[in-house]
Design goal:
Layout (H helix, E strand, L loop, with lengths): L1 E5 L2 E3 L5 E8 L8 E6 L5 E7 L5 E3 L7 E6 L4 E6 L8 E7 L3 E2 L3 E5 L2
Parallel strand pairs: 2-11
Antiparallel strand pairs: 1-3, 3-8, 4-5, 4-9, 5-6, 7-8, 9-10, 9-11
């Protein structure tokens, strides 16, 4: 199983980024998928994800600003992040099946 995130970077407050997660090594469409973030030395926060029935979850801190999507044909999951705030600065991780993790991609929101 391999999960590879991309799309992180430095952005000014109010800006946007789109994270991508490329999955391989498992039957992607069968897995619940999600995004979590973690600041070094702090706990993991679930940002957004898909339930088994395909409905979506968003943390209160990201509702209305972040949009999760997936393309099962391409084994890809995305996180569109708009109206970014400095407190969104974290390492963002892709998760599959509440079990597998990517290596993370750094998002920094700063002027």
């Amino acid at each position: 199983v391999q999960l590879v995130e991309s799309g992180g970077g430095l952005v000014q407050p109010g800006g946007s980024l789109r994270l991508s997660c490329l999955a391989s090594g498992f039957f992607f469409s069968d897995y619940v998928m999600g995004w979590a973030r973690q600041e070094p030395g702090k706990g993991l926060e679930w940002v957004s994800g898909f339930y088994m029935n395909g409905s979506t979850y968003y943390a209160d801190s990201t509702k209305g600003r972040f949009t999760i999507s997936r393309d099962n044909a391409k084994n890809m999951m995305y996180l569109q992040m708009n109206s970014l705030k400095p407190e969104d600065t974290d390492v963002y991780y892709c998760n599959a099946g509440l079990r597998y993790w990517g290596q993370g991609t750094q998002v920094t929101v700063s002027s």
